[in-house]
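Sequence only, no structure available. Ideas?
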Amino acid sequence: MARTARRDAHAGSLYQRTSDGMWVASITLPDRDGKRRRKVKTHKTKAGASRLLADMRRELDRAGDLPTSSPTVATWMNLWLETIARPRLKPRTLATYQGYVNTWIVPTIGTRRLDRLTPAHVREVHDAILRAGRSTTTALQAHRILAKALTDAEREGRVTRNVATLLDAPRRAVSTRAALTADQAVTLLRSVATNPDEAPHWSVALLTGMRQGERLGITRDAVDLDAGVITVSWQIQRLRWEHGCADEKPTGGWPCEYTRAGYCPDRHVRIPSDQEARQVYGGLWMTRPKSRAGWREVPMAPLLAEVIERHLEVATPGDAGLIFHRGDGHPIDPRDDAAAWDAALRRAGLPDAPLHSARHTTATLLLELGVDERTRMAIMGHNSAAVTAGYTHVSTALGRDAMARLGERLALDGGE
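Reply:
I predicted one. Tokens follow.
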């Protein structure tokens, strides 16, 4: 092989191959595991190869290394989900990530080489989501997931930069489904006041700001009527089943003959070793709250304490000691719970509002009542710089006062 020009190893070399006449730009990279590594690119002209060599030198100076081979986006996203994201994420969050990857990212840019991604390719994902009639919030979530995957690719030396950070992320869409006002919350609570099943449910939702899964996961030992607090330490979630029969066949399909993992005789839910979960019934599991801040104590307003006490006097604990459960003792499916909320709103003559809006109602009223930010965050289970590791206790004078005022607001506003 004849070489027409050569530079020192650290600067790279430029030569023409005698076999096909192509010009080759080659540069030495840092050793990895004791192995010598080079990055090679070709061009049909000497000028083009010179530009490639200059580009590689600049990128090597900037990043300290260059990838020598690159998978497609689809290959990397699947590898990232299984080996990097899975150990970090809770099962429900992982399932959400997988949904975004398989629905939007891979179908749009999955065949692109990872090291050749550009901001324009990321924008293609945004555009595909918006063309499908989805909101900018969906595009934002897809952008964030792709950005996380590219951050890890950069750390592993698979790409030299995270192109998702080079353009603005989509903005979160403005919701058109407003939360209940204080007057509407009062109307709902009065509508269900004589219903022994629904009164405690919606009182907890509006007077504590708990997430749906946290409310459905309250156990008897988490309710301290003497102290007037509810400890939020579990949540009910429906987790995603995975096939346990074997790997998917190369030709498609599974050895168990079922497409849906839920029908596989060897189905299972993979729980990371550092996370705690208990199967309660079917696909319903008790898992720890969303975050460290989610594991907390919430003071009960006197109004709520009375409702809960009456409920506990007549209700027997269900599976795993749950205070809210079906007639057979099994946990309430979150989908059935959401349907019950919608039905309660209709009976009370109130406009449609998502169940999660009860949480927003609580947060808004606490703000209107002048409750300070740190106390609001602790009550709602939000993360903040002020929250330290371990349990977040808010059974303080500030917390009790805040929840007492909230109870008075919902008990007296529009009162008779």
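The chain has 13 helices and ten strands.
Hope that gets you unstuck.
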